[in-house]
# Entry
Amino acid sequence: MSKLTHTDSDGKATMVDISDKKETVREATVSVKVLLNENTFELIQSNNLKKGDVLTVAKIAGIQAAKKTSELIPLCHQVALDSVDIQFKLEKLNSVIHIIATSKTSAPTGVEMEAFCAASIAAVTVYDMVKAVQKDVVISELKLLHKTGGKSGEFKRTNL
# Structure
């Protein structure tokens, strides 16, 4: 059975010592869905919300969140990010915004948590921007799609 990495020999929470780990290129991609009604989706797509350009604001918020991950998640290391990219795929048929966040570093530890923070904060920012016109927005299916680098190697989700 695998052991959790963030616990010491007594089972207490601890920060992982990465001083002996090699710096490698590491990348992680996370996705999340934002489900809207048709009216709200159209307002976003046509950039007609009073608060402004929803997707640009959400992108900036997601990038900022990735950069602050170690301040938000107690046992995360500060990671020098090489890049954070956030893409939006608009699915008009179901009024869904798919948010895909990718973080990349050349460091001795991974960047999955940075991608998770970027995607989730981008999604919550969409809600903040549209809450005046729709309060029943659903944010769902936050998940790791792909990661590379490090001791554990590559992970690729097969059930998208």
Residues 6 and 14 are 5 Å apart (CA to CA).
